[in-house]
Amino acid sequence: MNRRQFIASVAALPAAAPLLHRLAAAESVRTMSMWTYLWDIVDEGYTTPLELMKENGLTHISLASAYHAGRFLLPHNPKKKVYFLEDGTVYFTPTASLYGRIKPNVNSYVKEGHDFARVRKEADRHGLGLNAWVVCCHNTPLGTKYPDIACVNAFGDPLPHNLCPSNDAVRRYLRSVVGDLASQGAARIELEAMQFQGFSHGVHHEREGIALTGAHRYMLGLCFCPACFKRSQGRVDLVPIQRFVRKTMEDVFADAGIAPSYKTLEELPQDLFGPLQEWRRSVIVSLAEELHESVKGRSTVLRPLATFDATAREMVAMDAGRVAAITGGVLMPGYVKDGPALRDPLGTMQKLVGKEEVIVGFQVGLPESGGKSEFLSRMATAKQMGIRDFNFYNYGFIPQKNLEWIREAGKS
What we know:
By secondary structure, the protein is an alpha/beta fold. Helix content is 43%, strand content 16%.
């Protein structure tokens, strides 16, 4: 049993609290990285935000390097307070020769001379490491421009914001992005949405007029695109599953007032959905293997994001244990109320990944963080449980004064 596993095994024992506090003090924080957007660094003049992060104990920046759309409120940005993002763009200068048919859309900031490489140079000057934060399979512009790479539901409707991880062109594109960023010096590449996205993953102003159970949402999010039919051959027959989904959901649509036949994933017929789910998980595991191969021989490490919610992981076919065994660890958003609420989900994730690393991400803004005491409580619990690497969300969104919380947490 290693030290982290020992700490986790006794963390739930009330009598162990004094021991855990001593262990936490001895367990030094290794890295603290701030999720950050390029426009905040550029608009604040590079030096100001980098010095501020360094002064408050951050060791790294996790720069959004391939990202989706959004409307963001920026309380301390000197040039804009509300910003609408360019959807589905990259914030680095792509190496054209690495890409196949699917090519990245380059953000305007990059075209103006601001990119990952420039931030890395400035970060180096300030003694900060630079990680790349990459959104993988959520990209509406690419799914619209190349409709054959988008997921397709059981009714044949394309879902352009969801790129299908079964699709070879999508996988090549992601390999290229990851390899490109590794060659540009990313210390770590944090892979968000490296999975099927599911029905509930939003785009903009989603609307529903009927009550859907978890099972309904799962079925509506299943992909039946040509790439899935091709990749599933010899593993699982998608035809009867598609037929079942269509019939079940048509019954729901016809009379939404009836009691649902299936409320949870577990209630679905397991002769159909058991093999399907195992195959879907294998798609994501094999994608992790391909992306890991893209950084082989380099110092860059990969850390896919994985929620602590087991049902949510099943919805998107994320097998955190098998993925961590390939990449060496996962990044788990620890978005819970306080330290006591973190203990069980973090302990479960640590058991899932075994000896591999768990990085924990915490919110620092309001109201999501709950406040300083709740934030410090979460940090203390994570440290007690052996976590040494942390991410924080998000530089551009939070009051700058809240950076002091991070400094205090790193020292305590």
